[in-house]
Fold each of these.
Amino acid sequence: MEPVQRKQRIFSGIQPTGVLTLGNYIGALRNFKLLEEEYNCVYSIVDLHAITVRQDPTALRKACFTVMSLYLAVGLDPDKSLIYFQSHVPQHAELAWVLNCFTYMGELSRMTQFKDKSQRHADNINAGLFTYPVLMAADILLYQTDLVPVGADQKQHLELARDVAERFNNLYGPVFVVPQPYIPKVGGRVMSLQDPARKMSKSDPEDTYIAMLDAPDVIRKKLRRAVTDSENCIRYDPENKPGVSNLMNILSTLTGMSYDQITLEYGSKGYGGFKNAVAEAVIEELKPIQARFKEYFADKAYLEQVMTASAQRAQAIAGRTMSKVRRRVGLAPTRL
Ligand code: TYM
């Protein structure tokens, strides 16, 4: 008889900030769905990470349900994947504390996201912002995760999670699976429409990003105004033509066309025609997602049912890892 192979596990998370961008979609969310059949997937809405910067409580609560609705709208199946709020599984915070004691200040000070965010939120450089990657490592390691689908901006955090897992395993024996990143070659870094040297980000002005819930006209307008160059030539060359290459990147992930095919097809149509084609591809991709989003977002009872059932199943997995961790570090077992 063939040995039964355990499906490998995936963990990923997205922060519940009001708007998810086309970068979040292409870099991460789209792959969540593509990987769902092949893996056991755990997809969290990481609300504890979100409070490392000041949030309006009402808006945060709403954003949590918005992101959950988007998870469902891209087609994730809650019978197959766990879809829950991070704060509903207390083991995330518990393991984060333990791992804090195995992570060095020097490692955390090298994190580029921390440096960026402390510049942007200079009035609130709190300890949570600093130890953010440790909570992220805890998220991943709790579920004995094999693979983590993320955009390229999370690579450094993933490397830290691997280092911490290996350090812990070297001290206490094989407690954690050491996770691998899954960063798409095309689409791992979607750039700003106005400054293609920067990644597309919801913390930049609105005309620099496309939101997953933008109306078709807004998408057309933002893409029409996207920064390109004066060469009027459609060629993939991220160094010299970052704007055009970014749009080619977007079109290529959404349609499956190669860069050569794109050059061939749109080369003679000028930047106007090319930008229109990118806009129509984005609109077509997002249209069904937006329609399903509306339905899910209006069905609070269903969302609550998904979040509760998933959190219960997540707690069972996380609880097993936490018991192991407690035993190995020498915390007395609970009888609660
Ligand atoms: P967050 O919420 O900033 O972004 C969610 C996901 O979207 C990807 N992403 C992008 N990909 C390509 N191009 C872009 N311009 C772009 N912008 C964002 C991010 O790489 C990410 O995959 N720390 C994480 C959330 C997190 C997490 C985790 C992820 C918490 N715990 C455990 C994986 C595993 C974050 O802030 O993502």
Note: Residues 11-15, 23-24, 26-28, 46, 49, 136, 139-140, 148, 150-151, 153-154, 188-190, 199-200 surround tryptophanyl-5'AMP (CB under 6 Å).
Amino acid sequence: MKKTVTDIDVSGARCLVRVDFNVPFEPGTTTISDDSRIRAALPTINYLRERGARVILATHVGRPKGIDDALRVAPMAQRLSELIESPVTVAPDSIGEETQQLAAALGPGDVLFLENTRFHLEDEKNDPDHSAALASLADIFVNDAFGSAHRAHASTEGVAHILPAVAGFLLDKEIRMLGSILESPRRPLATLMGGAKVGDKMAVMERLIETSDMLIVGGGMAAAFLEARGLRTGKSLLEDDGPQMAARIESAAKARGIQLLIPTDVVVATELSAEAEASVVSTDAIPADAMLLDIGPATRDAYARALRLCQTILWNGPMGVFEFEQFAAGTRAIGETLAQHARAGATVIVGGGSTAEAVDSLGLADAMTHVSTGGGAALEFLEGRTLPGIAALQDTN
Ligand code: ADP
Ligand code: MG
């Protein structure tokens, strides 16, 4: 177990808090389209402020190669200021003389927001001098950036070796929620996988087969599983080694005696566009010029029935191309089933950037037990890998 902000005396302390405010914007604007990552960090920020800590926030935004005016933190600082109903000062840089002075001038409960950490390439390089410069701003390091915890950067990992380092509430919750899937899930446990490609999720599926009672597959990756069983999937998205990977997963599932569900019907179209004409076909009759873009109604029902038998469900990856209405029904139906099931007491954990986005846009996020804020980080965690940003934090005894 990792120490959290409640295991250390934060009163009056300068706390450097690494958050993940790498939020989506409306295209071409500085309007934040989804502030859930900012809201997710509020418990930690509020806790620290209530105890008179001086809060110094750090985040990366995008992937700048040096200073990039389009990737400044000002819009996030502004939104945060609205949410905490208190001023937030924006520093001109993440390190340096002027930033030092602003950090030193903070009063109890004040908030300083450092400029985009990745304006310094040394952040990603985990440069020791850069870590030291960041550390010199504060007395304590708090990591609440689960979405960046799989990266060993100066602001996520390097600094944690210099200052006393603890987890924020969000990071702690992510570790406990995702950890419960690997360690002691209420059974039966279903892993529900979707999304575009089987290759992206291969490692996590192999790990989760070891602990799940059921593996359910939808999304684009279903094509690989269908092909592996000798069915033809037309023009569907298919990686070269997809069927081979799917066959490996299927035999691992068989060897463990766990149930593997794949679609029996799918929604297809001859092109992927907003105007595309959708139709439902059985998976043994996918036309050669069609691609599968969602699970079909019979599959939706079968999956919903199977999921309702499970006490714990991990859902990673949409069931179809939910971005287009005619291919959104599978993701919507499964999302609604899981939300209802969670309200009735089941544990439903949602991971993956697109899946979280889908659940959020359906207004179902609050019903779920947990919606992970980490895309890649959640996958690596569930693969059983050590995340450097977590490993570097202090252990409880
Ligand atoms: P997550 O971010 O939740 O982990 P992925 O990144 O693996 O999910 O996949 C999300 C993408 O998969 C979405 O953009 C969605 O449109 C796409 N997708 C889902 N089903 C299909 C399909 N049948 N064919 C092609 N793409 C699909
Ligand atoms: Mg994704």
Note: DSSP finds 14 helices and 15 strands in the chain.
Amino acid sequence: MNLAVLVFASAATLTTFALDNGLMRTPPMGWLAWERYRCDIDCEHDPKNCISENLFIDMADRLFEDGWKELGYVYVNIDDCWSLKTRDKQGRLQPDPKRFPGGIRKLSRYMHDRGLKLGIYGDMGNYTCMGYPGTPLDKIAVDAQTFADWEVDMFKFDGCYSNATDQEQGYPLMSKALNATGRPIGYSCSWPAYQGGLPPKVNYTQLGQLCNLWRNYGDIQDSWDSVLSIIDWVFENQDVLTPAAGPGRWNDPDMLIVGNFGLSKDQSRTQMALWAIMAAPLFMSTDLRVISGEARSILQNKMIIGINQDVLGFQGRRILKEKSGIEVFWRPLSNNASALVFFSRRTDMPYRYKTSLSKLNYTADSYKVTDVFTGKTDILKDSTDFVVSVNPTGVVMWYISAAGKLQDEPPQITKIDST
Ligand code: GLA
């Protein structure tokens, strides 16, 4: 084979496998059923919380009416336990007619009428994690087409009951099959989570060409321990993970559990702040019908959402781990701006952490600093020492821009639609 043929052949392979849907140039935002609602299918005794069309309609109403949609939270995503245990006569997946009497098409129409989007769930194996029908290799084409026929906008492809060999074929095949439907469908792959999340088993270059987002670590639970273990894993592996992220391809540390039962106010702020540093998809999994004002104001914080949605799409890093238990995180943003998070692992009292911007690698003379939770601003010289008081398991988060320029306003949300 001469060189030209070789180059052509490898370019053709790339095009064949590249995910070409133009979606999710900033991390997707919305709501996902799993963490809060699991596999509750008992609609007879628990009608408000069971996995049924009513639940997704209720959440869509809340997103639409309570100011979430304008902030970018547009996806309403079904997770496991939506289907019947058997396929229909044509071999297609079918929703449980008792719980989804209008079918999935009714739900996608409901979302689209309101400027929202619908996501659905499947599994690259014989069964989903909860034992519903999976999508083994020979069913990939038919299932992708079914989701497109239902006008679904996003698809999460889980990996229970599949092996590494099947996954190697199945995840790329599904990417192609979704593309082949001609419908733009955001593609969330759980593949790396089933392969330990790290090279050499996981090839992040390939993933970025196949999937819009991917889970690479265990499931989030409603606890601080769980949130902390995710934070630790992501930042311990940041050298591998940060280059993988960018417009259209995101590491997914799993859902936001703010609004549930496991996190204090400070811990909720920490999750929101660090998910923004990580350029993480923001999928809430909480009951938006009864969410507290406190949780809502954290999830609806415009500056943090603006940081999460920054158009450059760089995933941020941990830049310091102090013996005192303070850690500092940094994310570069567009317009020469950046975000800093001071996080305390301590369990005693608010810690007064003293540093300066030059100690944190800032070299321009002076900066405008905005505290994203209080809205307070300040002009800081790089050499000036300052003190931030960081609560136990909490954060202080700053948006930082060069001082004195007109364009250095805090980030604004310019997009309604997070695709
Ligand atoms: C796996 C996934 C979860 C959820 C469940 C559903 O555990 O990682 O996010 O989808 O399956 O059964």
Note: The chain has a mean pLDDT of 94.
